[in-house]
Specification:
The complex is a heterodimer of chains A (about 110) and B (about 110). Chain A is an all-beta fold and about 110 residues long. In chain A, about 0% of the residues lie in helices and about 55% in strands. Chain A has strands at about 5, 10-15, 20-25, 30-35, 45-50, 55, 65-70, 75-80, 85-95, 105, 110-114. Chain B has about 110 residues and is mainly β. Helix content of chain B is about 0%, strand content about 45%. Chain B has no helices and 10 strands. The radius of gyration of chain B is 13 Å and the shape is globular.
Chain lengths: ~110, ~110
């Protein structure tokens, strides 16, 4: 248990479905992140939230919609996804400073789009 | 793009030290080097980070060259459970917008 909890751990959805991934951190951090990891590829940074404001959006398609209602919770809303969106979605949190920024990751949500 | 270069794979005998190299020749003076590892299909696990001085914790040691252009992660007594992908990362940006960009990493295979 890392202090970052992701649910669900596994999700199967059709291309017309709407679903959400949830992330909760119990570390008192003020920054949260979504990463995507496709098969045999490095992690890709999708979104960064700092103090509940989105500070990074790495050209992610609009079918992925993040939401950060407070500093402890982060959601990734999914709609009309494509099969190539099947991947491991990882949430992380941190307490950035002008120096070090150590991220703590959750276990991930494995998404399969049919 | 990732700012680091690592060998794609390495082998290590169980019980021996595993030395994982990383090049970060464009690192800036105030940027830290971070190491994470990822065991198959799990979330990345933080190992260690450093700026200039060598660092050691309960998991590993980090040796940073004096010019800071490269570093080595040392697992002193590798076990089979240390088989994983190891990522060396230099933060891109600073403050609350600084971000960690992962490269391909090094796949370490610890063999009996």
């Amino acid at each position: 248990e890392t202090g970052v909890t992701q649910t669900p751990r596994h999700l199967v959805m059709g291309m017309t479905n709407k679903k959400s991934l949830k992330c909760e951190q119990h570390l008192g951090h003020n920054a949260m992140y979504w990463y995507k990891q496709s098969a045999k590829k490095p992690l890709e940074l999708m979104f960064v939230y700092s103090l509940e404001e989105r500070v990074e959006n790495n050209s992610v398609p609009s079918r992925f919609s993040p939401e950060c209602p407070n500093s402890s919770h982060l959601f990734l809303h999914l709609h009309t996804l494509q099969p190539e969106d099947s991947a491991l979605y990882l949430c992380a949190s941190s307490q950035p400073t002008s120096g070090a920024n150590v991220l703590t990751f959750g276990a991930g949500s494995r998404l399969t789009v049919l | 793009d990732a700012k680091t270069t690592q060998p794609p794979s390495m082998d290590c005998a169980e019980g021996r030290a595993a030395n994982l190299p990383c090049n970060h020749s464009t690192i800036s003076g105030n940027e830290y080097v971070y190491w994470y590892r990822q065991i198959h299909s799990q979330g990345p696990q933080y190992i260690i980070h450093g700026l200039k001085n060598n660092e050691t914790n309960e998991m590993a040691s980090l040796i940073i060259t004096e010019d800071r252009k490269s570093s080595t992660l040392i697992l002193p007594h590798a076990t089979l459970r240390d088989t994983a992908v190891y990522y060396c990362i230099v933060r891109v940006g600073s403050g609350n917008t600084g971000k960690l960009i992962f490269g391909q990493g090094t796949t370490l295979q610890v063999k009996p």
